[in-house]
Fold these 2 entries.
Entry 1:
Amino acid sequence: MNSIIITAHREEKTIGKTLDSILQQGREEDEIICVCPDLETRKRIKEYEKKYKNVKCIQDPKEGKPTALNLAIQEASGDILILTDGDVFLGDNSLKEILKPFKDKKVGIVSGRPFSLNPRSNKWGYFSHLLTDVGAHETRLKQIKKNKMIVCSGYLYAFRKNLIKIIPEEIFSEDALISHLIHEMGYKTEYAPQAKVFVKYPDNFKDWIIQKRRSTGGYNQLKFYLKHKERMRSFSKEVYGIVRIFSYPRNFKEFLWTIELVFLRIYLWLLVFKDVTIQKKGLKEVWLRVESTK
């Protein structure tokens, strides 16, 4: 048996689609644990809990995603934990695909592949496609080919339960921390590109900054938690790989958007440096709701 963990907060409008995309894959032997603090989302999950024996809902104290995940990990009975969110949905056979690499006992954690639901025809949608296709997908393929570690996507990833007992409550990007910790234990990090997860990304400047500030800040925060200070992502590595993104534009408009993205990323890393290194902000100060992704 495996445990599928869904974290959600005020996602009563999307959690149904998330659950449907999981249940339709016909894995009745796997338990589905939903963790959320708000009544509206829990009511929606309760409808599924009454209908399906393998769905359960637990309430978290609204202390942040790491706390919610710790509750779910303690509750989980499966050997493999599959983590996703209540505002995304899985592609057909994604659960089967993300479990395949675990046939190798040396594999400790596996990442799925996010796909953007945003239109590429506008700037913010273009950013989401570029960052998922080049920044995430191509980078993971390249790392795996070289037998190097990858950082798994928080939208869909799975790991062996016995490897992670508790997640630090102040961590911004638990997916990045867990990926690095499992790699430090000597296990392989793997990629399952056919394990598809469909995501709606921010469609305005304010929400884009909020989302990227916490995810990028999480990478900068890793130096306080890891034995080895080497990280898969950093400002210097992003600068080094900047040439690759200019092969992505299809026209002059997208080329200009790519240039703008470079400056936005520089601005973002400056904010992250201030948040983590100078002001030492906590999770509640950085983890703000991104309305346009719901």
Entry 2:
Amino acid sequence: MPAICPSCGNTLGEPARRESSRPVAGPTPPEQTLFQGHPAIVGSAGDVLLLIVTLGLAWFWLAARSRATEYKVTTSRVVVETGLANKKIEQVDLYRVIDFAVLLPLGERLVGTGTLVLEADDRTLKESPSKGTLRLERIRTDVRGLYERVRAARDADRARRGVMAMDRV
């Protein structure tokens, strides 16, 4: 119903409609898994040395350490689940990831593993002991390729949500 002027009684017409400057988000694409798995049981040359020194008995400890952590990287989030009896789950939406680092120390390269470090602008993650970083350590995959896929997924997620990155000076 159009508004009426209280002074003269004329109709004022339809109110002007505002156009939103934010992009309209389309349908959410299904989440795809980019990587899911545990750290490698033997993740570095130091682990190999430990196995040799203990005549293989360290295998049980290394296997338990590996199974205590699970990584899941999808096109919209990163989830790190740690603990055997007591579980802790940390999750970061990909659009909040600020920076990436790929670590390939010699000991890890010798056994075919690497580490992907994600720095995120997430309040709950900044309050954790990791201070805003998620480390996907000793993963047995092409870490450089995973980095490229995660970076592309982060950029696509930001574009879909209409999020723009701003540098802090």
